[in-house]
Amino acid sequence: MIFAHFTPVLATRRGFTTADDSSWNIREYDVHGRLERSIRRAAPPTPATSNAIAAYRKAFESAISKQPGLPPQARSELVAQVRDAPSAETIPVFDDVIHGSDGSYWLSRYDPTQAFDFESHSVIDSTGRYLGDIPMPKGEHLVAVTRAEIYTVGTTPTGGPVLSRRPIVR
């Protein structure tokens, strides 16, 4: 399904967290499953218009065409599946959530025209306060956050993976 909604679940030191990508809501639970805190942002759902669906399909087809080693038949089948797939009525607010070692949350912005290439993350500090959107270098994917640094994985010019470490400037 195009624009399918998911609920990421993250294990934390004190329990677990769920994040609802259709309404921008993070819920923290203790180890017994009791709700401890809910963090919400005013982010109304965006309707999945025919233009947004077409942009997603085009971005998906472009991403598939760049996959090295994918057999032509598999490539054609994947493109056909997305071309014929139904769509949810709204676009997800975010795509992925990273829980930092300092208690922060980093939520990747979802942009249907930039499928598989997230360029910024919304950051929530450990108190639940929204700090803003942090741009990421194009082509790099955030994988971990510590108190002082972020870690991203990107690709070298020859196609190999590279891990980058950058300081968090407060």
The overall average pLDDT, rounded, is 87
How can the largest sheet be summarized?
4 strands, antiparallel
Distance from N terminus to C terminus (CA atoms, Å) equals 39 Å
Rounded Rg? 18 Å
How many helical elements? 2
Shape: globular
Order of helices and strands: EEEEEHHEEEEEEEE
List key phrases describing it.
4-stranded antiparallel beta sheet; 13 strands
What does this structure look like?
- This protein has two domains: 9-46 and 87-167; 47-84, no CATH class.
- The longest helix has 16 residues, at 50-65.
- With 170 residues, it is of the alpha+beta class.
- A four-stranded antiparallel sheet has the order 1-2-3-4, with no helix packed on it. Strands 7-8-9-10 form a four-stranded antiparallel sheet, with no helix packed on it. It has a three-stranded antiparallel sheet with strand order 11-12-13, with no helix packed on it.
- The chain has two helices and 13 strands.
- The radius of gyration is 18 Å and the shape is globular.
Task: Note the topology.
Blueprint: E1 9-12, E2 15-20, E3 25-30, E4 35-40, E5 46-47, H1 50-65, H2 72-84, E6 90-91, E7 94-99, E8 105-109, E9 120-124, E10 130-135, E11 141-145, E12 149-155, E13 161-167
Antiparallel strand pairs: 1-2, 2-3, 3-4, 5-6, 7-8, 8-9, 9-10, 11-12, 12-13
In a few lines, what is going on in this structure?
This protein is α+β, with helices and mostly antiparallel strands and 170 residues long.
